[in-house]
Amino acid sequence: MKSLRLPRSPKVIIGLVIVGFFIIMTVIGPWLAPYNPSSTAFAPLLSPSAHHWLGTTSLGQDIFSQLLVGARATMVVALLAGLAATILSMTVGIAAGYLGGMSDEGLSLLSNVFLAIPGVPLLIVIDSYLPVSSRSNFFVIGLIISLTGWAWGARVLRAQTMSLRNRDFVEAARIIGEKRTRIMFTEVAPNLLPVLASSFLFTVLYAIGAYVTLAYIGLTSTAVWNWGTMLYWAQANNAPLSGEWYWFVPPGICIALVGTGLALVNFGIDEFINPRLRAGGLTSRQRRKLGLPRRIRLGLTPVIHSTSKRTVVAAPAKLVSR
Amino acid sequence: MIADPLKTHAAAAATESPLRRVAPVHARHEFVLEVNNFSVDYGVGEDMVRAVNDVTLKLRRSQVLGIAGESGSGKSTLVYAMTRLLRAPGVISGGDVTLNLANEGDLDDVTPLSLVTASERELRNIRWSHVSIVLQSALSALNPVLRVGREFNEVLKTHRKGMTRSQRHDRSVELLKMVGLNEDRLARFPHELSGGQRQRIMIALALALDPELVIMDEPTTALDVVTQREIINELNDLRSRYGFAMIFITHDLSLLIELADEIVVMYAGAIVERAGASDLYEAPRHPYTFGLLNSFPPLHGERRELAGIPGSPPDLAELPKGCSFAPRCPFVMPRCRLEAPPLTNIDGLDRSVACWLHIGGPSVRVPVELSREMSPLRTRFTALEDRA
Amino acid sequence: MRMLARRLALYIVTAWVAITANFLLPRMMPGNPIQTLIGKITGTVTPNEIRAIRLSFGLGFHQGLIAQYFTYLTQLLHGNFGVSITLGAPVSAILRQSVPWTVGLIGLSTIFSFAIGTFGGALLGWSRGSRLDALIPAATFFQAVPYFFLATVMLLLFGSDLHWFPVLGAYSQTVTPGWNLAYVSSVIRYGELPLIAIVMSSLAGWMLGMRNMMITMIGEDFVLMAVAKGLPRRKVIWHAARNAILPSIANLSLAIGLVVSGALLVELVFNYPGVGDLLLQAVLNEDYPLIQGIFLVITLAVLAANFLADIVYLWLDPRTRTVAAV
User: What residues contact C156, with CB distance under 8 A and at least 6 apart?
Assistant: First the structure.
């Protein structure tokens, strides 16, 4: 098992910082919020000010509080959905890749079908049938989002499992007589961790988009504050065309930022999985200082004249007296 | 020369095979490639590792130079760096490589080109038309989504702009015939061909523009023994017919004995011995060469105990002081661990070795295994006197 | 060809699954939505329409589940998608009007996005380490922005504030539909901003994926070979790109799903007379026949696009065609 090395790439560090920031917001957001987000006590459509950092909605609600409180629902549902989807894709993908044969055929068919059906339209159909009372339940929403987003991870995990299955250490375990399920858990699964992590992050990314889309259309309960609902209200009250940017821009930016953070962390995992993607060692400034060209060009091996670390001793032959 | 439509008028003027021409006076005409004090590193600064250390060699026209050594000896790094094809983080850290190009095959019109300082355009001009390369794995060297014929068409189109499409096709067919393949192979994809067929195509491709120098990087390593033998024979045949110089890299010294004119043995990035092929085989001087020869049983001759070489190749980042081979040498002396022996000419002939046993002065007793007599009859390199 | 047959079979199965899901979902949900629906609309629509709706759900007479299923299937085959309760017209007629707009918009934007994205990605991958790398964080950010958000911002910026583009609708109210120049140019003009919005949202995905594949390909021997052959740089890039593009096409099914979802919302923002706006209205009014109809049409269109992509992939990657080596 490769040891976990701390990521050095700035991209990944920025990504982790962003995601960390929003996780913190999820936890302490509602506590930090200055006002009750649903409270209509204030004057409507105020521009950002010291009292209301992001102004107020057309109903007189504080937008900043909505943003802070809304983080929780958005992130929690997305994380739940990501978790559920990853469990689903693990089960289907690893089993399909490892068992092979008819099981593989059947499970692959299942994942391919779910992959081909467009996710969000299906989500909309399912959600529209849900009784309104269920729509505020995080678990229910998370579950149906995961039902539409697990297929991609299953496919990737299946491919990875298949390539691992034929590796020597798995073969060795099989020869010793380990049970199949045990092999799957103890030998195959740990090597799948990077792919799993990447798949999880990707699914969370999808889940945020799906949840926000549902909220924007109005398919989630308006009693629960999330960033998508904010956009729904903003759109319903014609905020974009009226120039009330402080209402609809912040939630959109937050969504984009979380997504960007997740994507950046995913880059790091990609680079871990595929070493070729890792940035080559030296920054362009370092290269210039050493006399190297700024970019590595294929077919133009760079030429430098450095002091040699080890010189060939061109000493004259000396008679060695014994 | 190979009948090349654009060159027929020039070739007509030089109807004699270059092999039979009178030996030219200047080194430029005699040597197609001159490598001087060439060094290649991986990485720069603190983590730098020297992969090729101060290599000097010369390659005569139409000569075959074999480079032998274990993995990590620097043989592949050397040739890729020479042609500026070495990938990052490889860096050329010293020395020069000069290609003496004969324009249009005319040995009176030779231009030297330093590959180390050449521009991208100059490199592109001479690549494939004067120097071509056969990579180790033909399956990965051919674009998997393109038909084989397109690879041929591409080189011909790039470097011989005057050819028409049907001329290019004819030439491709001719090249395939040269390596014993049917023309229908042109329409195939790489994955549809066997390993031997692919390697033959690589060779045909390498010869497409009638280059002066062909570099082969372990071309037969991935093949079975029978196919390997066939290809070596074909290479011999092609070379004697078309007169290109060849550098053949391998870890299997026995292949070089019959294929090469001169052999260079590399260890830990430096040349440890250089000699004519038969001289090397009959009378190895360096202990490493001796070890290598004893690792491959010959099919004929007396039965010998197979020795091999104890130990493993050194870590280039942590080379020992003194001779790099000292830790594994069965004839090691105290001096070997202190000072690295320079590559020095010995036996008064065109062979050199980097070993204190032979260059340490008359007081050193040379082991009997390393002091065999060379046979007086030598078919190659007889009367080659001057070098510039 | 066997590959294609397998893919076709997959799509047929998928279509069947979608159709069956449409049938089963309302019956699985607590509260019997269908009865509620029919109860709601009785009196507001004609008895014929009620009958059509019942049939489209498979409720012919009091039948068992299996019989209902077959009724449902037969109705579908006859094109009876039910009647929209909000618009009072057969769903099939409504769809016939809006679907072309959606297909045109999404189709064109996908083509543009794919082309620009893979081309840009190839350049990014090749010029790794150059100043172009600054595009990567920007592309990542754009990829994370929800489609409708970007569309809204663009609407605001370019439509309302700067008046560069017309907003709202597919063509100017002043022209008459038909094959005349005024209409066609108006259609193009009105379609530009939605198209740009969709392209900008989906571009990054193609670009980053292609970049990663290019970097992997450049490490392959055949690209070094292309350089060794003395080919001009653009030909070397082509060799690598020709291989690097394959996964992008193979993953089209995933990508198209995302693009379609996003594009529907963009239509919403721009009031484009496609399927998106329709969907919103249907959802708000719990117009199940319309929702189902839209879902089916979208699924079928996506499957068709997938099949096209499979054909293209087969054509581009010869390794999938033959099974054994000589």
Answer: A240, A241, A243, A245
